[in-house]
Design brief:
The protein has 22 helices and 16 strands. The radius of gyration is 21 Å and the shape is globular. It has a six-stranded mixed beta sheet, with helices on both faces. Strands 9-6-7-8-16 form a five-stranded parallel beta sheet, sandwiched between helices. Strands 2-1-3 form a three-stranded antiparallel beta sheet. The protein is of the alpha/beta class and 493 residues long. It binds pyridoxal-5'-phosphate.
Length: 493
């Protein structure tokens, strides 16, 4: 199996090179030449397997230049004790044919851990094959959760340095605290005066900037990415869709008409993994793409025009405050029949005019595969309150967006299939907003007061990685202008 760039599919590279490089030299994203199938017999075997067994099986199909021992080793150490009860993706029933997959039982309490506990291990193995003996400099742009998950995943991993850039005014207080108190000898964290898209654009540009590349090479280092533009971030995410299917089947759900999944979406990584899982043979019928008030994807799916020329809103689901969803490029590559020139034209138009329009062929297939909708903050808080009161389920602000859009979908399409909502963060990670949703009042005090109060009210256990932050010292308080990001990188090598 080789990997092509979405903007140039003449020369394939092995998966180790795709993971080491993160992004292709002309700015495209690496994609597998074909999407491997999982057969009925294999699914039957996976049903009897645990999460690690399922992860190893999926990874072996995509990372064919890794040995079985390498993959089993990476998976074994990534998905062990660092997840609560050794279960990275428990399926929770919250209603008739209505399920939630909780992806936040890892060290940073958000779903990014499922990929970022594994990626450093994959990258270490990949560097041995394709790294040319150079150290990896992992640059991360984050809307809040990726930064912390990358810091935890790469902390003190030999042969790596991690630098994280986050919007100084665009993440939750808890997210900021998680990052700014990070331990480890190989980490650096900096806020920027700008939003996530500014950080992501600056980081993506550095990866392909010859001057930056040579400066970094002069230190015997090479850039790599821990953002979901890196294929090594996406492939672990396919696993939990396979696993959700196995769990539904094991619980005796009728899957003769398949099932639907609902995903709170920002950079389009999570839902893209669902799409690959569907193409592999997981019987997912519709993919429900849920956005917050930054509803650029909802509008795109409804109209065929993607336009970032609009107001940017700061919402109570900050990890989805994104106007340029990078991974959409991979989806378009598939829907255009691997026509990389067409994809490159769309991206060029997006960069130059802030928008692009797809043809009716792409638009039609998109509507068949996806259902799209959005929720604003007020609606999000109402959903949290209602799901807690009526079902006893405590959702965070991101998950709530997906729960709400999922309700729309069921109402308007009248589907009788089981549906699984991807729950992407612990409610305690966004405790002030969740508490406000339930009590109707703004909390006095800081986020730890909110956590305590939310716990007293609901009795739901508080994840230790959050409560233990209270007494940690701030290590990284710096903020820079977005134009200063490259210099900040060079100054901190
Ligand atoms: C990152 C994130 C999302 C968005 O996921 P994408 O893969 O970027 O679409 C949603 N919810 C939470 C809590 C996140 O951290």
């Amino acid at each position: 199996m080789v990997y092509y760039s979405t903007r140039n599919n003449l020369k394939g590279v092995p998966s180790a090179a795709a993971i080491c490089e993160g992004i292709s030299p002309e700015g495209g994203l690496f994609v597998p030449e074909t999407i491997p199938a999982i057969g009925a017999e294999e699914f039957a075997a996976l049903r009897n397997s645990d999460y690690r067994g399922r992860a190893s099986a999926v990874l072996k199909k995509y990372l064919t230049d890794f040995t079985d021992e390498e993959i089993d080793g990476c998976v074994g150490s990534a998905y062990g004790e660092n997840f609560e009860n050794g279960e990275p993706a428990p399926l929770v029933k919250i209603g008739d044919k209505f399920y939630v997959t909780e992806l936040w039982h890892g060290p940073t309490c958000a779903f990014k851990d499922l990929a970022l506990q594994l990626l450093p291990r994959l990258l270490t193995a990949a560097s041995g094959k394709a790294g040319g003996g150079r150290k990896s400099l992992i640059l991360v742009a984050t809307s809040g959760d990726t930064g912390k998950a990358a810091l935890e995943g790469f902390r003190d991993v030999p042969g790596t340095e991690v630098m994280v850039f986050y919007p100084a005014e665009g993440v939750s207080a808890m997210q900021k605290l998680q990052m700014c108190t990070q331990s480890g000898e190989n980490v650096y964290v900096c806020g920027i005066n700008g939003n996530f898209d500014d950080a992501q654009t600056a980081v993506k540009r550095m990866f392909t900037d010859p001057v930056m590349i040579s400066r970094v090479a002069g230190r015997n280092m090479r850039f790599s990415s821990a953002n979901s533009i890196n294929w090594g971030r996406l492939v672990p995410q396919i696993v939990y869709y396979v696993s959700a299917y196995c769990e539904l089947a094991n619980r005796g759900e009728d899957l003769s008409d398949g099932f639907d999944v609902a995903v709170p979406t920002g950079n389009f990584g999570n839902i893209l993994a669902a799409y690959y899982a569907k193409r592999s043979g997981v019987p997912i019928k519709r993919l429900i793409c849920a956005s917050n008030k930054n509803r650029v994807l909802t509008d795109f799916m409804h109209t065929g025009t993607y336009s970032r020329n609009r107001e940017f809103y700061k919402t109570c689901s900050p990890s989805m405050d994104i106007l340029v969803s990078s991974n959409l490029e991979r989806m378009l590559y598939e829907l255009c029949g691997h026509d990389c020139e067409r994809v490159a034209d769309m991206q060029k138009s997006l960069a130059e005019t802030g928008e692009f329009t797809v043809g009716s062929d792409v638009s039609e297939s998109m509507k068949e595969i996806f259902y799209a909708g959005s929720r604003d903050d007020e609606q999000t808080l109402e959903i949290i309150r209602r799901f807690y009161r009526e079902r006893g389920y405590l959702a965070d602000t991101h998950t709530a967006v997906a729960l709400g859009v999922c309700e729309d979908y069921i109402k308007s399409e009248g589907v009788g299939r089981p549906v699984v909502v991807m729950s992407t963060a612990s409610p305690y990670k966004f405790a002030p907003a969740v508490l406000k949703a339930i009590t109707g009042e703004t909390v006095r005090g800081d986020e730890f007061d909110a956590i305590r109060e939310l716990h007293n009210l609901t009795g739901k256990p508080v994840p230790a990685p959050l409560s233990s932050l209270k007494n940690r010292d701030i290590r990284f308080g710096n903020v820079c202008e977005k134009e200063e990001i490259p210099d900040t990188v060079l100054a901190n090598l």
